[in-house]
Prior knowledge:
With 283 residues, the protein is α/β, with parallel strands linked by helices. It has helices at residues 54-67, 91-96, 100-118, 135-141, 167-170, 176-185, 191-197, 209-221, 225-239, 243-258, 261-272, 278-281; strands at residues 30-36, 39-44, 75-80, 124-128, 131-133, 145-149, 153-155, 189-190, 202-204. A six-stranded mixed beta sheet has the order 1-2-3-4-6-9, with helices on both faces. Strands 5-7-8 form a three-stranded mixed beta sheet.
Amino acid sequence: xxxxxxxxxxxxxxxxxxxxxxxxxxxxxxxxxxxxxxxxxxxxxxxxxxxxxxxxxxxxxxxxxxxxxxxxxxxxxxxxxxxxxxxxxxxxxxxxxxxxxxxxxxxxxxxxxxxxxxxxxxxxxxxxxxxxxxxxxxxxxxxxxxxxxxxxxxxxxxxxxxxxxxxxxxxxxxxxxxxxxxxxxxxxxxxxxxxxxxxxxxxxxxxxxxxxxxxxxxxxxxxxxxxxxxxxxxxxxxxxxxxxxxxxxxxxxxxxxxxxxxxxxxxxxxxxxxxxxxxxxxx
Length: 283
């Protein structure tokens, strides 16, 4: 998938650098930071338009897989540096892929980058300022929530550059008619319109999406990590089932959480008007 709007191979840049105590290795095109307790921000930093090539996708897989293994990330914010969230896939890299095997490998990596976010055990919140196009839009749609600046734009312009794909992900956040219209016309949708359609959780002033996403992530991270994981991880399997079977599965999650140390601690805290700390809730 490609955004088709400036998404071309970029010149080599200095490494984006690393941060804090996540224990993950340094990445070239991602920055990791800890903007709030138990919150990690993953920032795509591949100027000028954060085009998604194989290197960026590989780093996204490594970063989100690595964050599975840490107990200090209870919520994740996916953001981007610069004035564009992501213009989509790198068109020049796509054109340079020679042979069926190379194309299959690229397609597999594309899927894995999306799945690494969508199937992450911690909630992931996308902070979108500027344009999120093609694969960049899908990347945001893989997150649990999208926070967007008022001037953000979303679109699927693949039809104009000989590409397609993304309906499987977009139908998670917008109605079928809206998804089909975006994919068949290539027209951009404003953040206020996507918010009206239910695809954006919160609208904020331009340039404030990441700060607002961090606030939401911090609120989630202050809850019991075990409760958050149980609820977060129930969404996908429940959505795939008929309502009767889905609710029965939810009840199984509830029962397991209720008898866990975290569930018992939360009820005790409520009854005694105290508040368990996140690290205590995991004991």
